[in-house]
Amino acid sequence: MLPEVDASGQDRVEYPGAMSQLDPLFYAQQLFRRRKYDQCADLCAHLLEKNPYDKAAWFLKTRALTEAVRIDETELEEEGLAEVMLDDNATAQLPRPGTSFSRPMTNQGANKGIRPTSKTGRPVSGFVRPGTQSGRPSTMENAMRTPRTATARPVTTASGRYVRLGTASMVSEDVGTFINIEKLDLRKYATRPILAKALFLYILHVGEQPVKALELAAHATEYEEFKDWWWKAMLGFSYHRLGMYRDAERQLQSSLRQRATIFGAMLLAKVYIRLDQPQNALRVYHDALKQFPDETVLLAAAARVYEGIGDLSRAVSEYRKLLEHDRRLLQMGVASAELFNNLGLSCFQAQQYDLAFNCFERALMLADNSSLSDVWYNLGHVCLSLGDTTLAEQCLRLSITFDPSNAEALNNLGVIEHRYDNFSKARNYYAKAMEHSQYVHEPHYNQGLIAFTHGDLASAMKEANAPSSLSLSLSLSRFAWLPYYPSSIQSEQALTLYEDHVPSRNLLKNIKRLLRE
Question: Which UniProt keywords apply (predicted)?
Answer without folding.
Answer: TPR repeat
